[in-house]
Structures are given as structure tokens and as C-alpha cells.
Write a structure and sequence with these properties.
heterodimer; A: alpha+beta; six-stranded mixed beta barrel; six-stranded mixed β-barrel; 22 strands; B: alpha/beta; Rossmann fold; six-stranded mixed beta sheet; four-stranded antiparallel beta sheet; 6 helices
Chain lengths: ~800, ~240
């Protein structure tokens, strides 16, 4: 049956409460938007990655070695589970770019002559692939070419094995091995200072004296292959050739970083939206319940004239339908729009051939369904309450509820309260459940604000710890191969160098029981001043005289504690295996390192005092001459400038995580405002008549406002500590989940975050009060007094 | 005469020892203490009595808006006190027109639409416009309640109540919020409906003068019927002195 008049009532009612409806729609849309955006971005990245890996034959197992003859190819293929093998030559080079004062480094990778690579195939963005035996030609990674504005036909100068060569870029390519492109030892992608290049295999072999040999191997497994078996057999096979421990795809640098980023995104991007969606759903429920409750008299009348409960329920559900449909449309559209924007940001760090925003219908349905069901339940509960009453009773303005002296008054504080204040506190005490729900709703909306701000706080704190407390050097340099400690003196003499600290780092495979992890032992001075280690209270710590200092995350991965003894297989020439005691657990928010006294490390390796790199503090005025000098020293293969690393890290965070954070802050503010505004509006519609009567009795507008807003103000005051506490809990929850191998998030919430969250809630309240206040001023005293709706 | 269980076609309502208790906190209020009554078909009945005497409770129970604590209510041949929630809804939908002191119009609907709200679900209604004309408000049909005077709003409520051609019209203080002049207009409208449609009309009032226009006056006091007076010559509303 089409009930026309009832539908018309619906439309007009909706129009009359459009402010409240918009607020609810906004809350719902915010919840859905963040949800669809975040899930969409995550799904899109995962999908792009998986498709890319699959189409371009990303390998499953990798290993590096010193040098082996190509003839062992068949032996590798004979390992059970191996379906394809690619043998390659890779070589670190220095790249000199005109106009850039600091040196750049690069990696040259051999490209099979006359065929496509079987594994880790290249995606040609522009230009062409290499011709067989094409000399003086390279393919450049797109990231490096873009960072320097190189185009096809441009030449790049490189120092290969001590010889300077000028090479022409004939093609610009992407590789599944370098989705995330990191210089060896680097923490963050720096496309300006690190590039990957491909060269004809035979030409490269000749250039680096590797004819008929290889130093890098990639393997594809067949379906039934067992990674562990293949790794083991490969290690045995390659050991005589200086093979380092083979590793599976999950430990491949680019993949590991991509995976870590995805893990972070999953936590940051999904934790927040899930909380948002949950909070939004809760708020919609509370708000819809009250909205319908204000219609009690009309529900009674509809029943009196013969409408059935079902017809009435359907009528109000249509109201919900409008909210749900509008909220979903705005939410979905917003999610797609923002998601597409976010994806663009990721293209800067993740070099995929194609990265497009897409989202699954399931995600959308879930988000919409979740909010809708909550709204529907809220409505039905309210209708149920109204319909339960006999119509005669429902139609009467809610019979005066039973008030009594409140607890505060009973314990003798009565004399301190004015009559108005008594009304306020009796109202609160009379309906404690409702007061509790309002308090929870506002508290939750505040907690998501804290949660949003917290991410920014803790990223800043992480940066501060990493660069101001731990890595205090200006520059880190790395040598091609270990050098005598006397090299330090040469460095000290370079222009602008104010102090210098040695570093002896060595790749290592740490094992404890059946737990293991590839890492680096950093041999440093006992009391470092630049490259420091921090104890668990983040105070500078001394390097233990005996034993190893493990970062807490590494200790967790290996399941060891202070005092345990672990096995360290050194991944260098002779591959000595050491048994070392864990002497200290140190804190590190970024990375997974182990630290050791340098002399102790050298003794354990039976080496004279050698170093592999150095940390420098320099006078910035001398940066130019210093960089020039470093460029000219062939023994230095890498240089990282901490300031740049910090900038890149900040950029990276700023570009993705902090943008998410900014959006979360906006959404959280909107949600807060929506909830508070709605609560105030509904309080007005419930108590409008009472307030008008009081005005008739001669109360001033100010006194009436005190009654209306006093209750709200108490609720907000109670909500603030709840918001602060749940906000902290959410932050703590995120930190627990955010514990990836790459990053740990410290639970750091600045006082300003708490302050700002409180301010946003209070400003939302003030604005809501103002908007509602204008309605109070418009109460028509005469008609209101007559009790006419 | 009460032996036939209310099977007399000329009786619209019959109640038997009707009681209604309200429990508020620790006290029980006995709103009705055994009301036994018959209301003949087509009568204009006025219920008189001080506030708290049980008139409204009685009206709400026979109108299916509330249920009795004990006793029985018959509507024609049916025992109303046995009705389910669903049956009560249909009873109200098809047989009863209500008029309340507070009018209870939907503020977001025009006068005509308020009437249509009822005709939409009625079995054999007159057109909403005809109902509006019956209360002489044809020219105000497109106005919203806020644009109408109290008397006009109450006449819209009457139009809404009669548009479904109910068997009975139940009016709780229909003129309570009105001045005498407007009150008379409303009463005339009620009387016209009663005469022209033959609708059994029950009116609650404080105003003893209104009783002059009734066929039958039932006096309530302290939850009981204290007296029933049959008026052989009801006078027209305009002759009522307030």
C-alpha cells in the first residue's frame, strides 16, 4: 500500500531536521570514506604487486656469491623444486652526474644477450631493449632517469671496476626486483643517489673480468618446491664459490620493504578506518535512536488512527534509508576520490608499471552494511520503545519522569546548587544510561582525534630518536672493501671534517635454536659519540666490552634475552661461525641491527684492525669540497648524508602516512562535531516545550541556555577523560600492531595532542551550542505553551 | 438486558465492571472502579465529571488505545477486551475516529494531507476534501497546522476523524483549548457529523453546559458512573450558554 500522506510527512520531516540528518550522513560518510579509501589503496597495491610479480617472473630464491662458472647451471636445475634459473653478474658502480656535487652509486646487472631474462624480466617503459653484445648501451631504471631528467639517448658516466665509461641510455625500464629501490645499506629509497642499470651480459662480464662466470643467481620454484630445501642445497652447492646464504623472496630487499610498507599501511590504514567505521556506526545508532524517540507523540497518534506497528516502523526505516543511501553515496564517492589521490602518492615510492586505484565490492558492501545495520537497529529500538506504549500514553507528551533528589543533594551538598543546577544534575542522574551513551559517543569521537594526531607525534619522535639521539653523524661513508684503520686518518684530513668514527660492519646470519635472521653486526667504538646506541630508556649506552648488543626487535625475532648465547655465521670470505653472548638489548625504532665493540669483532674474525666505513661530523660550509673529494676516491663506494636521509624519510612519511593522518584528523573532527551538534539538537527538540514554559515563567534566555547546555557541558566534561583514555588505548593498540621488522612505533602522545583534541571537541561544542542557541531564541512562547506541536 | 452478551444491534459499546489501575512508583491509582455502561448506536453522549474521575481512561479503553485491568468491553458484538494488538489496530483503523484536546496534527503536513493520512488506510473513506468541507474548512485545506487557529486545527482533527466514516467518534475535551465562540463552531461540526452520518459520538468535557446538546449524559466521579441522564430534547450548540 502506498501511503502518500505518510511519505510526504517523511520528506517534510527530513527537510525540517536536515541539519541533524546532514550531521548523521556526514558521520556515516566519513566512516565509509576512510574505510573504502584505505582498503582500496591496500588492495590496489597488493594487486599491482602480485600481477607484476607474476607477469614479469619475479624470482623465488636469490643468492649472491663471489664467482662461479656458468657450467654449474645444470647442478642448480637439478635441485628438486627448481623450475628456472638465471645466472647473472652484478656490479656496484659509482655514477657521476653533472651538476650534482655529491656522488651517486649504482648497480649494474647483466642482461642476457639475444633473449629475455627468464626471471626478473624488465618492463620497458620507453625506448628499446638491448641488442646482443651492444656495447656502450644501458637500460636505466625509471626512478633514476626520472630523478635526473634523463631521456633516451642521454649518456651516463660511471666508474666500472676503476674505468670511467660513458654509457648511452637506450631504454627506460622497471624491474620487479626494484619496486622499492634501495642503495646497499640504505634505509630509504633515494632515486637521485642510487640507480640500477642493465647491460649486455657479455659486455659486462668483460668489463668486470667475469667471463663465463656469474656472481648472482635467481631461482624460480615449481609449485611443489620447498624454499628451505632449495636454499639449503643451493648453499651447499655455492659454498666453494664464496656463496653467501641464499634467501627467499620474503627477504629480498625490495620485496621486504614493499611488504613492510603494506604491513604498515594495513595497520595504519585499516586500524584507523575500522575504528572510525565502528565509532560512526555506534554514533549513528545513538543518534537515530534519539531522532526517532523525539517522534513519540506522532507515533502514538499514528497508532491511534489505526496505523500498524509495521507500517510505522517502515515509515521511519525510510528515514534511515535516506541517511544510509546518502551516506553511502558520499562515502563511496569520497573513498574513490581520495583513494585515487593516495595511489598517486605511492607511485612515487613504489615503481610499478601500472598502479591504479581499485576496490573490491565486498569492502564497499561491508562498509555500507555495517553502518546501515547499526542505523536500522537504532531506529527499530526507538520505534519499539515508542510502539510498546499504549497509544493513549505515547500521544501524551512523555509523562513527567520521576525525579528525585540526586546523590549529590542527598549527601548534603544541596545548599550549593541553585534550582537551575538542580534541574541539570537531576536530569543527568535520572537518565544515566542516556548520559553514559552521550558521554561515550563524544569520548569516542575525541579518542579518534587523539589517535589521528598520535601518529604524527610518534613519527616525529621516531625521527628525533633516530637522527638526533642515535645516528648523530652528518655523513656515513662505506668502502668497497675493508681497509686498515689508518684510513681514518686520511678521512680526518679531508676538507671540513670535524670528527670521525670508525665502523666495521659485517653481514651475518644470526641463529638461536630454530629462529634465525640475517642482519649486520656493526662494530663501533666502546663509547661512540656520533653513531650511538641507545638503551631501552633511550639513553646513550656504552657498547659492551664482551658480547653483542641486540636491538630489541632482533632479540624478539630470535627469541633471546640478555645473557643468552647465539650463533653468528659471518657472511664473509671464510664464513667463520661465532658463538656470542647477548650482553645488552638496545632500542631501535628503525631497522634491525646488532652492535659490537669493533676491536672485539676484528679479534673474533681474526683480522687486524680494519674498518668498512666511517661516520663523519662535518662543517656544512665545506660540503662542496668534501663531496668533490669523496667522489674522487675510488675506495669509497657509498655515502649517505643524514640530513638527506631524514628529509627523504620525512618526505616519504609526509607523503603517505601523514596525508592519511591529516585526513583522519579532518574526519575525526567532522565526526566529533556531528555527534555533539546532534546531541544538542535533540536535547532541544525533547525539551523545547519545557524551556518555553520556563521562559514564560520569566527565566532569561541565558538561564534557559544554562539548562539546555549545562547538561551537555557536564557530559562533555565527563567525555574528555574517557576520550583521553580510549585515545591512548587506541594508540597503544596501533603501536602493538605496527611492530614490523622495519619500524616500531613508540607510544608517544604529546601534550599538545591531548590539548588540541580537547580544543576541537570544545570548539565543536561551542559551535553546536551556537547553532542550537539560534533555535532557542526562535521558540514561539505562546504556541509552545499551549502544548501545540 | 445485559444477558445477551451485547448482541443487541442498537448498542455500540457495552462495558461490564470495567476497572483500570495505574501503578506509579509505590502507589496504585484506581482510575476506574467497575464501570458498567451501555452506549446506544447513533447517540451523542457527553461524559461529565471532574478531572481524575476516569472519563479519559474510559474513553481510551473503549477506543482501543488502552486495555482494562479487569472487566469486559464489547464493541457491538465483539469482545474488545479479547482483541490482540493487531485486531485493536484494525479496530481503530476502521471503526474509530479520535479527536484530542491537543489536536495532534502532524505539523509537517497540510490540513488536507493530515486528513489524507487517515483516508490512505481506510476501507471506504470520503474524499479528504469532502471531509474538510464538512467542517467548513475547504478554503483552508492547503494550510499547515501552524498557519491555522486553534479552532481551525480542531476542525481539521474532526475532518481527519470523520473522513474514514467511523462507527464512533471519540472526543477528549475537543473544546478544552478553545474560546466559547470557536468551541461552538467545533461542537456544531460534531453535531452535524452525528446527525448526518449517524456516528455514535462520545464527548468528554468539563463544561456542564455542553451536556445540553447531548442525547445522553453520563456523570463520572471517582472512577465510577454516578448518574446517567437521558436528554429527550437536545438543544442546538448555538444555544449553549458557556
Amino acid at each position: 500500500m502506498i501511503i502518500e500522506a505518510l511519505n510526504r510527512k517523511l520528506l517534510r520531516d527530513l527537510w525540517n531536521i536536515k541539519g541533524q540528518m546532514l550531521a548523521i550522513i556526514m558521520v556515516m560518510a566519513c566512516g565509509i570514506t576512510t574505510f573504502i579509501m584505505s582498503f582500496g589503496v591496500l588492495d590496489s597495491l597488493k594487486l599491482s604487486r602480485d600481477v607484476y610479480y607474476d607477469r614479469y617472473q619475479f624470482a623465488d630464491v636469490f643468492a649472491q656469491l663471489k664467482r662461479a662458472p656458468e657450467a654449474i647451471r645444470q647442478q642448480v636445475l637439478d635441485i628438486p623444486g627448481v623450475s628456472a634459473v638465471e645466472l647473472r653478474v652484478t656490479f656496484g658502480v659509482t655514477v657521476q652526474v653533472d651538476g650534482m656535487i655529491e656522488p651517486a652509486s649504482g648497480k649494474l646487472i647483466s642482461h642476457p644477450d639475444g633473449r629475455k631474462p627468464l626471471l626478473n624480466n624488465l618492463y620497458l617503459r620507453s625506448g628499446r631493449m638491448l641488442l646482443p653484445d651492444e656495447a656502450d648501451a644501458i637500460l636505466s631504471s625509471e626512478a633514476f632517469a626520472d630523478a635526473h631528467g634523463f631521456t633516451l639517448g642521454d649518456r651516463v658516466n660511471m666508474v666500472i671496476n676503476g674505468h670511467k665509461r660513458s654509457l648511452k641510455i637506450v631504454g627506460i625500464v622497471l624491474s620487479p626486483e626494484y619496486v622499492y629501490s634501495l642503495a646497499p645499506g640504505g634505509m630509504f629509497p633515494d632515486d637521485k643517489r642510487f640507480g640500477v642499470f642493465w647491460m649486455s651480459q657479455r659486455i659486462l662480464e668483460a668489463a668486470v673480468d667475469m667471463d663465463g662466470a656469474f656472481n648472482d643467481i635467481a631461482i624460480r620454484m615449481d609449485r611443489g618446491g620447498n624454499v628451505e630445501n632449495i636454499k639449503q642445497e643451493l648453499d651447499i652447492l655455492l659454498k666453494p664459490y664464496g656463496g653467501l646464504i641464499a634467501y627467499a623472496r620474503k627477504n629480498q630487499m625490495s620485496h621486504w620493504f614493499v611488504q613492510n610498507e603494506l604491513d604498515q599501511l594495513r595497520v595504519m590504514g585499516l586500524f584507523a578506518p575500522t575504528i572510525f567505521l565502528g565509532v560512526a556506526a555506534f554514533l549513528i545508532n545513538v543518534v537515530m535512536t534519539r531522532q526517532v524517540a523525539t517522534q513519540r507523540v506522532q507515533i502514538g497518534m499514528l497508532k491511534a488512527v489505526g496505523y500498524s506497528n509495521l507500517e510505522i516502523a517502515l515509515h521511519y526505516l525510510k528515514m534511515v534509508l535516506v541517511v544510509v543511501v546518502m551516506g553511502s553515496i558520499f562515502g563511496i564517492a569520497g573513498g574513490i576520490w581520495l583513494g585515487a589521490g593516495m595511489i598517486n602518492i605511492y607511485t612515487e615510492f613504489f615503481h610499478f608499471p601500472i598502479l591504479q586505484f581499485s576496490f573490491s565490492v565486498e569492502v564497499m558492501i561491508f562498509a555500507v552494511f555495517f553502518c546501515s545495520i547499526s542505523a536500522v537497529i537504532g531506529t527499530l529500538v526507538a520505534i519499539g520503545q515508542a510502539a510498546k506504549l499504549p497509544p493513549a500514553e505515547a500521544m501524551r507528551p512523555a509523562s513527567p519522569i520521576q525525579f528525585r533528589r540526586t546523590f549529590l543533594e542527598r549527601v548534603g551538598l544541596e545548599k550549593y546548587f541553585s534550582h537551575l543546577t538542580r534541574i541539570v544534575i537531576r536530569h543527568l542522574e535520572r537518565r544515566p544510561v542516556r548520559a553514559l551513551f552521550s558521554t561515550l559517543a563524544i569520548g569516542l569521537s575525541m579518542s579518534i582525534l587523539i589517535f589521528a594526531f598520535f601518529m604524527e607525534d610518534s613519527i616525529n619522535y621516531m625521527l628525533e630518536v633516530q637522527f638526533d639521539m642515535a645516528q648523530r653523524q652528518d655523513i656515513s661513508i662505506g668502502f668497497v672493501k675493508p681497509r686498515a684503520i689508518s684510513a681514518l686518518e686520511e678521512i680526518r684530513l679531508m676538507p671540513g671534517v670535524m670528527s670521525v668514527e670508525p665502523l666495521r660492519s659485517v653481514a651475518v646470519f644470526l641463529k638461536s635454536g630454530h629462529y634465525s635472521k640475517r642482519s649486520t653486526i656493526m662494530g663501533i667504538r666502546p663509547k661512540p659519540d656520533l653513531n650511538r646506541i641507545l638503551d631501552q630508556n633511550l639513553r646513550a649506552a656504552e657498547v659492551p666490552a664482551r658480547g653483542l648488543a641486540l636491538s630489541s626487535k632482533l632479540a624478539e625475532i630470535l627469541h633471546v634475552k640478555k645473557g643468552d648465547v647465539i650463533t653468528a655465521e659471518i657472511l664473509e670470505d671464510r664464513r667463520p661461525v661465532l658463538r656470542i653472548r647477548v650482553a645488552e638489548i638496545v632500542e631501535e625504532f628503525i631497522g634491525l641491527s646488532a652492535f659490537m665493540d669493533m676491536d672485539q669483532l676484528n679479534r673474533a674474525l681474526n683480522e687486524s684492525t680494519v674498518i668498512t666505513g666511517a661516520s663523519l661530523m662535518v662543517d656544512p660550509l665545506w660540503n662542496g669540497p668534501l663531496y668533490q673529494k669523496i667522489k674522487e676516491i675510488p675506495a669509497i663506494v657509498s655515502m649517505s648524508i643524514m640530513q638527506k636521509a631524514r628529509e627523504i624519510f620525512k618526505d616519504m612519511m609526509g607523503e603517505n602516512i601523514l596525508k592519511l593522518v591529516a585526513m583522519n584528523i579532518i574526519f575525526a573532527s567532522l565526526i566529533s562535531f556531528g555527534v555533539i551538534y546532534n546531541t544538542a539538537r535533540i536535547a532541544l527538540s525533547e525539551r523545547g516545550r519545557e524551556l518555553a514554559s520556563l521562559r514564560v515563567l520569566g527565566l532569561t534566555r541565558g538561564e534557559v541556555a544554562y539548562l539546555l547546555f549545562g547538561e551537555m557541558a557536564v557530559i562533555i566534561l565527563m567525555a574528555i577523560p574517557i576520550g583521553l583514555f580510549t585515545g591512548y588505548l587506541m594508540a597503544f593498540g596501533l603501536a602493538q600492531h605496527m611492530d614490523t621488522e622495519l619500524f616500531r612505533i613508540p607510544v608517544v602522545i604529546e601534550k599538545s595532542t591531548y590539548g588540541l583534541s580537547v580544543i576541537i571537541v570544545v570548539v565543536s561544542a561551542a559551535l553546536s551550542f551556537y547553532l542550537v542557541w539560534r533555535q532557542v531564541e526562535n521558540i514561539d512562547l505562546v504556541t509552545a505553551q499551549k502544548g501545540i506541536e | 438486558m445485559a444477558k445477551n452478551n451485547g448482541l443487541d444491534d442498537n448498542i455500540t459499546f457495552r462495558t461490564d465492571r470495567l476497572t483500570k489501575d495505574y501503578v506509579t512508583g509505590e502507589t496504585i491509582v484506581q482510575a476506574l472502579r467497575g464501570v458498567t455502561l451501555e452506549i446506544p448506536r447513533g447517540d451523542m453522549v457527553v461524559l461529565l465529571g471532574p478531572s481524575g474521575s476516569g472519563k479519559s481512561t474510559f474513553l481510551n479503553i473503549i477506543g482501543g488505545l488502552d486495555s482494562p485491568t479487569s472487566g469486559e468491553v464489547y464493541f457491538k458484538k465483539d469482545r474488545l477486551s479479547d482483541y490482540s494488538e493487531q485486531q485493536l489496530t484494525l479496530f481503530r483503523r476502521h471503526n474509530v475516529g479520535f479527536i484530542f484536546q491537543a489536536y495532534n496534527l502532524v505539523p509537517s503536513l497540510t490540513a488536507l494531507e493530515n486528513v489524507a493520512l487517515v483516508t490512505d488506510i481506510a476501507l471506504d473513506p470520503i474524499s479528504p476534501m469532502a471531509a474538510m468541507e464538512a467542517v467548513n474548512l475547504g478554503n483552508r485545506a492547503r494550510h499547515f497546522p501552524s498557519q491555522l487557529s486553534g479552532g481551525e486545527q480542531q476542525r481539521v482533527a474532526i475532518a481527519r476523524a470523520i473522513a474514514k466514516r467511523p462507527e464512533v467518534l471519540l472526543c477528549d475535551e475537543p473544546t478544552g483549548a478553545l474560546d466559547s465562540e470557536t468551541g461552538i463552531v467545533v461542537l456544531k461540526a460534531l453535531q452535524r457529523v452525528n446527525k448526518e452520518f449517524g456516528t455514535t459520538t462520545i464527548v468528554i468535557t468539563h463544561n456542564a453546559a455542553i451536556a445540553d446538546m447531548a442525547d445522553r449524559v453520563i456523570f463520572f466521579g471517582d472512577g465510577q458512573v454516578t448518574n446517567v441522564k437521558v436528554n429527550e430534547n437536545p438543544c442546538p450548540p448555538e444555544e449553549i450558554s458557556w
